[in-house]
Design brief:
Elements lengths: L2 E7 L2 E7 L10 H7 L9 E6 L8 E7 L4 E2 L3 H13 L7 E6 L2 E8 L2 E7 L4 H4 L7 E6 L2 E9 L3 E6 L7 H9 L9 E9 L2 E8 L3 E3 L3 H14 L5 E6 L2 E8 L4 E6 L2 E8 L3
Parallel strand pairs: 2-3, 4-6, 11-12, 13-15
Antiparallel strand pairs: 1-2, 1-18, 3-4, 4-5, 6-7, 7-8, 8-17, 9-10, 10-11, 12-13, 13-14, 15-16, 16-17
Amino acid sequence: MPLIQFMEALGNNFVIIDAVTQDFNFDKKLIKKLVNNDEYPVFDQILIIEPPKSESADFSIRIYNIDGSEAENCVNGVRCVAKYLCDQKISVNNKIKLLVKNNLLSVEKINDEFIVENPFSFVPDNIGLKNESHIFSLNKDDQKVECFGVAVGNPHAVIFNDELKLDVELFGNFLQESNIFKNGVNVGFVEVINPNEINLRVYERGVGETQACGSGACAAAVACALSKEMKSEIKINFHQGQVLTRVDVENSKVFLIGKANYRKENVILEN
């Protein structure tokens, strides 16, 4: 029977399943089984490591939300994957290329931290926008809300919430049901502290508000650098910690630096 890992990054909790060195076939029924087992830690997503589906990648990753939907990216999750691959010496290099759907990520281990290199795009189709440009406004409860859309492997809408004081759960759910995005969207709510630092809360589609969101941090960093003309290097505070980001506007890349940890190792996945 395969072994699974319960891991976390910034309070984001994951199940990591190695389908490279173990015989494992995924069935969506597994999600409900894991969620309903009181002996298992609570988690946000399942990440399955598979042999590469492209010559440009070292491994392929599939990501599933607890509602059964498949995600296109999870920057905190891939840091956990990279830590597992390095710790188990499944990867012979400290720099690993991971293919998540059509998104190729590079993760590099430096000491006990992992740097994720993530491309970003403003193409409306990549963001999943139906008819809007990547910066658009909408009205909610007599307030004009400006949204900054960006794709970082998955779709994000970033809102500067300093004055709006929007409710994260209510507005996050409202944007899912707005029909603006083809397949829903992750929503980041930014509070600017200074030109180098922000607080961030993220409503993740298929999950709701989470303790942290790595791709949300990347999206917020891009929005801050380009919309608010903030510094290219930004510290982003979540409920349970911080990450550092750096935006490379010229090459349309954003980098995120942070750690990953085990919560419960080598748990037997019973039939």
